[in-house]
Specification:
The strands form three sheets. The protein has a five-stranded mixed sheet, covered by helices on one side. Strands 1-2 form a two-stranded antiparallel ribbon. Strands 3-5 form a two-stranded antiparallel ribbon. Among the domains are: about 60 residues, no CATH class; about 190 residues, Heat Shock Protein 90. It is of the alpha+beta class. Helix 5 runs antiparallel to helix 6, helix 7 packs parallel to helix 8 and helix 8 packs antiparallel against helix 9. It contains nine helices and nine strands. The protein is about 50% helix and about 15% strand. It is found in: Cell membrane.
């Protein structure tokens, strides 16, 4: 029989000639034979309906066949692979959902002002996102702390300013009433005191104005060549009466003539505030010394006093706006309501310089460095 020669294999269905009969033999007559797939047919084959010969079939068909057992095995592999893929997809999906939910909660907590703690994630992409959320949370937390500190400083500043304005105003009112009533014998002395009180308030108001410009970033520098010797000499001359009231000597012999390109008015205010601060905290019959010189590409101004030193814990806060160690500051003239040194720091920063303070044997030392060439 033809199908015996084919060893139980038949051609692909779809070819009516080969599919129905091969060599005159009906393959459906052999239920034990398995139909398989024919992959290629030699177009030049000539298969007569009479008997089938092995050589003719070999020359006429180039075929590849899969047995029934192989088909069953393939279906088994596909089923197992599908099951494994489903399990893996579920595991990954559940894990991803859990971690994304954690990130969503973290983002919500950031909006509530809470700090997000870092968590380990299985995905590098999610780990990167978590790291960014953590960094953002830390930055926001630091910003909130700075804002709270600034708000506290503002409250302190308002309190000190109110006190420092109220005190001279009350004194001026009392002296004016005394002059009006004619009970004053030293009229010129009262006039000088009133002028001094007015000067004190003017200094405070001017410092507040400059500080507000510094804080808002609207401070404009009018730079030009200035001689530090002239500025220091003028400041010493202006503040000599204030120092004389406490028998304090201001020594400016170590100041040399140094020309720098800076804002004359602001540098003068900076020097004045440093001297006033030294007078306020120096004991009677002490010495305040000033010096200047060159330090690399900057000029250096140094103010030393004999105040007895500053608590190391307070050094970092000394230039904070509105900060004062105690109410003792308000008892001295030109106390500045805690804005004098803040103004100094702001002016130096506007000139791209640096101001530092440290303790000496009998007092403290303020060092200001400003570049020779300052761009407005």
């Amino acid at each position: 029989m033809c199908l015996e020669r084919l060893n139980g294999l038949v051609a692909v269905p779809g070819n009516p000639f080969l599919g129905a009969r091969l060599g005159g033999c009906d393959w459906r007559a052999y239920p034990g034979r398995t139909p398989v797939a024919q992959t290629s047919v030699n177009r030049g084959a000539n298969l007569p309906c009479g008997g089938c010969h092995g050589g003719g079939l070999g020359n006429g068909l180039n075929s590849m066949f899969i047995s029934a057992k192989d088909v069953e095995f393939l279906w088994y592999i596909l089923a197992v692979a599908a099951a494994v893929a489903l399990v893996v997809a579920l595991v990954l999906g559940l894990g991803l959902s859990r971690y994304t939910s954690g990130l969503t909660k973290a983002a919500h907590n950031i909006g509530l002002g809470q700090t997000v703690a870092p968590k380990k994630l299985m995905s590098s992409e999610l780990a990167g996102l978590a790291t960014e959320l953590q960094a953002t949370s830390e930055k926001l937390d630091e910003s909130r702390r700075r804002e709270a500190a600034m708000e506290e400083a503002r409250r302190e500043l308002v309190s000190w300013v109110s006190h420092d304005l109220r005190t001279p105003l009350a004194s001026m009112k009392a002296m004016t009433e005394a002059l009006e009533d004619g009970v004053v014998t030293d009229v010129s002395g009262y006039h000088r005191k009133i002028i001094a009180q007015a000067d004190q308030m003017a200094v405070l108001v001017n410092d507040l104005l400059e500080l507000s410009k510094i804080q808002s970033g609207s401070l404009t520098l009018n730079t030009g060549p200035i001689d530090l010797y002239d500025l220091v000499s003028d400041a010493i001359a202006d503040l000599a009466p204030l120092a004389a009231a406490k028998s304090i000597q201001i020594d400016g012999k170590a100041v040399i003539s140094t020309v720098v390109n800076a804002d004359s008015a602001l540098i003068c205010r900076m020097i004045r505030n440093l001297i006033v601060n030294a007078i306020s905290y120096s004991p009677e019959r002490s010495v305040i010394s000033l010096s200047s010189g060159m330090h690399g590409d900057s000029v250096e101004i140094v103010v030393r006093d004999q105040c007895g030193g500053i608590d190391p814990a307070d050094l970092d806060r000394l230039f904070d706006m509105g900060w004062r160690k105690s109410t003792e500051r308000s008892k001295s003239a030109f106390s500045g309501a805690g804005v004098g040194l803040s103004t100094v720091a702001g002016i130096v920063a506007a000139h791209h310089g640096q101001v530092t303070v440290d303790n000496t044997e009998d007092g403290c030392r303020f060092i200001v460095r400003i570049p020779y060439e300052v761009k407005a």
